[in-house]
Amino acid sequence: MPRYYVDLHCGPLFAKGVTSFEASDDDAAKVHAIKAFPSIVETCERSAGCSIYVMSVRDRRGITLFHIELSLDFNVSRENAAPIPY
């Protein structure tokens, strides 16, 4: 089975080869990456204050196949939240 390699971007931080995994093909790699992304972000440095994480997935040749972006917003509290107009 092909092996895929994960790089993680968080603001100015870049971690190459954070993890790797095997999948039967590129489509299976996308499914695996989407499911694994939150737990990969959870293991990263939180003190950097990042709210946008971008995961790049490469094949064994080092070619980036796709990117996935995860945006987190921890700055809004219920007391200070403005109503959303509909």
Describe the structure.
With about 90 residues, this protein is α+β, with helices and mostly antiparallel strands. It has one domain. Helices cover about 20% and strands about 40% of the residues. It has one helix and four strands; from the N terminus they run ββαββ. The protein has a four-stranded antiparallel sheet with strand order 2-1-3-4, with helices on one face. The longest helix is centred in the middle third of the chain and has 17 residues. The protein is elongated. The N and C termini lie far apart (about 50 Å). The mean pLDDT is about 80.
**Number of strand elements:** 4
Percentage of residues in DSSP E strands: 35-45%
Gap from first CA to last CA: 49 Å
Strand neighbour order, sheet with most strands: 2-1-3-4
Count of domain modules? 1
Percent in helix: 10-25%
Going by helix content, strand content and strand pairing, the class is alpha+beta
Oligomer: single chain
Overall 3D form: elongated
Low-confidence stretches: none
Order of helices and strands: EEHEE
Q: What order do the helices and strands come in, and which of them pair?
A:
Layout: E1 3-10, E2 13-22, H1 26-42, E3 52-58, E4 64-71
Antiparallel strand pairs: 1-2, 1-3, 3-4
Brief summary:
This protein is of the alpha+beta class and 86 residues long. The chain has one helix at residues 26-42; strands at 3-10, 13-22, 52-58, 64-71. It has one domain (3-71).
